[in-house]
Specification:
The complex is a heterodimer of chains A (581) and B (606). Chain A is an alpha/beta fold and 581 residues long. Chain A has 21 helices and 10 strands. Classes of the chains: A alpha/beta (581), B alpha/beta (606).
Chain lengths: 581, 606
Amino acid sequence: MIEKLMKKYALSRKGAYDFIKSTAACVVNDIAMMLPVALLYFFVMQLLPVSVGGTAGTNQYRGPLYWLCAVAAVFLVLYVVNWIKYDSQFLSTYKESAVRRMTLAEKLRELPLSFFGRKDISDLTTTIMGDCTRLEQAFSHWFPTFAASIISTLIIAVSLFFFNVKLAAASLWVIPVALLIVFFSRCVQNWAGRKKMAADIACADGIQECLETVRDLKSNNAERRYLSGLDEKIRKIEKVAIKSEYVTGVFVVSAQMVLKFGIVTTAFIGSMMLARGEIPLLTFIMFLIVVSRIYDPLGLSLQNLAAIINTQLNIDRMNELYDCPVQTGTTRFEPADSTIVFDHAGFSYNEGEAVLRDVSFTAKQGEVTALIGPSGGGKSTAAKLAARFWDVDRGAVTFGGIPVRSVDPETLLSRYSIVFQDVTLFNNTVMENIRIGKYGASDEEVRAAAHEAQCDEFVQQLPHGYETVIGENGSELSGGERQRLSIARALLKNAPIILLDEATASLDAENETKVQRALSRLVKGRTVLVIAHRMRTVSGADHIVLLKDGVVAEDGTPEELLSLGGLYAHMVSLQKTDADY
Amino acid sequence: MEKEKPKKLRKSDEYRRLFAYAGRFKYLTYASMLLSAVSAVCALMPFVYIWKIIREALSVMPDFSHMTESVHNGWMAVAWSGVFVIVYFAALMCSHIAAFRIARNIRQKTIRHVVSLPSGSLAALGSGRIRSIISDSSAATETFLAHQTPDMAGAAVTPFAILVLLFVFDWRFGIASLIPVLLSFACMAPMIGKRMRESMTNYQNALAEMNNEAVEYVRGIAVVKTFGQTAYSFGRLKDTVGRYSKWTTAYTCALRQPMLFFTLFVNGAFAALIAAAFIINKGVQDFPSSAQFLSNFLFYVIFTPVIAVTLNKILYSSENTMIVEDAMNRIDSLLALKPLAEPAVPMHPAASGVSFDNVSFTYEGCTVPAVQSVSFAVPQGKTIALVGPSGGGKTTLASLLTRFYDVSSGAVRIGGVDVRSMAKDDLMKTVSYVYQDSRLLKTSILENVRMGRPDASREDVTAALKKAQCGDIIAKLPHGIDTVFGSRGVYLSGGECQRVALARTILNDTPVVVLDEATAFADPENEYLMQKAFAALSKNKTVIMIAHRLSTVRHADCIYMLSKGNIVEGGVHEDLLIQHGLYAGMWNEYLQSVDWNIGGKKREDV
């Protein structure tokens, strides 16, 4: 049962328990709400003459003091029951939602990076946070009360049947009808909700694209045209929303409304049965009192019916994420050395579009291996395969003789210092951005790494030095500054394998020299894989691998390749012309 | 009742703010309120007939076969319920149409405003936050208007209808059943008070912060992975999730007692009625009581749950009012940002010489100016280069020309006209800025290139692409220039995007061009092609180049060395070399770095 709930609603184990607990609390609460009805029943009884089953004028009469005590007792019970319900309903859900968010963030981290290529980033963040907020609402407000209202209503309904079957049917027919409508609307709403969500996502993506390209749009005076395209998406939301509201709104509202007929038919049929002498007056009155209250919990829950049904979509998406296969492998990783070998490796991001066809080369420990070649030739991909960002489709990549795909990604990554071409910085202080390189590094270590990476000079000019917050993706910094920060990270980590993907491309000559020196100190005794476009940056490598169209086109020392007179020689000559321009 | 007044004022204030976006659709909202009020009255009518049934039963008892009216009364009760349902449906239809339109108008207005803001201030806000304000806050108003508004109108009418019924039947029972209502109102007071609203704001802020942090986390997931971080060690996310959790818990705890008492009183009418029964019927011992008294008592017993449901609706609506208020505040915070001022009387420059006159600029929140009293001129058709260490102010200076920001003091002029006196469109037709990270839209290459000149023909576009050396790119795309960028499998490298963006600039054919560090990431092949494209682009143009690569600026008509926001040297390459200043130093460094290697063999030399 717990497992089923966990699966069905994407809950943690504790969350599933809490859900059951709060539903139980709601059921108890709903039933406790019937205590006043019992009280009123007996009170009416003593107001009625004996001829119609009352106790007026008999010795069973109870005075004001008796009723005062009874009322106080009922109040006390209601207060306590409500307190328990409140705590189990709200407090525990909010705790669960914090757990859920962190679990989700962890899950995202475990996914292979290929996943992020497929999913749009705005889609992902909608998922991670929007869904959490919604599920939080669902599990604190909607689900337990809904489940409980059905259970408690059924319990009360069954007991009504013991009194009089015919009258009970007259009062309760609305419940199966309402539930039937709920069932049907579920089907319709799932369909309509999906369309609405697609429109929402299209619009959110449009807004995101607009915000990301606003600079280009404006400098081309194209913003008004783009906005009119976006208007179309916004209008689409309106159209889809109205449509889905009309289809589903009718169902949802009618489920609620049908309940309003319950008391009417009870009074109607009841009075006729009374006239025919089929039921005593007290039964009639009791039915009216019960029926005036029995639908309230269900009616309140049905108000959220649309939301409840829509939540299923959010849950599905959450589960889709949870179900994504993660990369696994052994955490016992003791390679002989840190030489990287590509053995007939093949890889494609999308089926049928191979980026690497058949790549074999060796990056030896203690050597600098340069990966060069035209854009799209597979250099960056190869570097990322070496660190198991993805798994190769064919062949193998080995680290000290051990295939990287057999090693747990995190264990593996702990052996790599990586500087990416596209630097990612966080909206945090300079200090924390560098500290990401090594969990728990001291301020001194961070400063030392920053110093090596030539960050000192510009960091000191920032308003709060190392404590300056640098904006979303370091928007306050220049390209070269960002790159130096990411080099500082790698220096701080100081791992046996170093991957440099265009690490110094956007530095000016002076800074590049300094940074290269720092990097050179780092490379001693390690395996270094460098991707660079500037020939002067790679011409001193021990070993050059030229990738073109997904295969190794040339492989050897710079001198060998130069004398070969192939593509490498051509590239070098191109840049010579450039320098002489 | 007095307590209610400020709340009501505030509520109408929300409507005023929302209706600013409604146009004619606000009448639909009014209609929905009216219909909902009517339906609320209809909803009470069946109870009147139920009362009639009970009264008849009690008056003929114990021989119930004398009941003659009950069938008629029963039908009437059913009929009124039916009317109620129909009218309520109509109310919802009206409110939904209006709500969706208002949300749509809010979205459209906000995104338009955002686009009109200076690009600099957008970067500071963060795209995740802006997107969430535009999409989510407008959705919040949708729920409020679609469901809350009609329900509120209904809930507002119900107490009055109840007051009327109170006189129709027995005013003493009426007052008794209103006592718990007043008590529950008293409990609600702290829930809608100022403190609670503050906590609501805190809660919403925590939510927004957490969402922003999640965007950061997802964006940086590659870094998180490579540096062995976990979601738990990724402190900022964990902190914001923790803070959010804390606020929700605090909020929930603060509401606990008021909520419990509210629930208790709302459902406490039975106690008041029993007490009232004793008081009204002093001689209760003399039962059986009169049919009149009994039927009235039963009416209130059956009727009071309606009051409870109504009160519950009011309670939730005040929570929703706070949510919508907060949403409106967020939207207004965006709308309050000042767009770039458009000149009242735009001027058009006759020439394309550029001059910077005593220009200073300080970033918001910084104390040190990024650019300080910089003056220089670029004669029409000439090329100047801005060089200097990174962070020296090159990019900042150049971006003032396209009003990425506006100068703090001084003026940037084109053909003698201050850029701030030019219409934005005119300025953009005069200056092209080639960014180092130009973005392409997810549309065809054709549309991307003619973004600035939608009337350009395919031939024009093809020619521009050719000049931008994009032949190889187009050749490899599955549908040539009609290939949709960003679609399945269509991938362009940074350098390739750059060249397509260059084709766009070439097609725009503006007299002034700014080139920003554009070749940093290009591979040799790309770089070589890009240099050729630049040459094509710059022909007969006024050009400002920003570059780290001294080789590319060597032939500029004038080179300005920027350091710490000031021009420290200026002149042609050869003159600067003779000065033996900063530039000469950088040049020597550059020459050296050509010979410098990362590789193992040179390591020993270091």
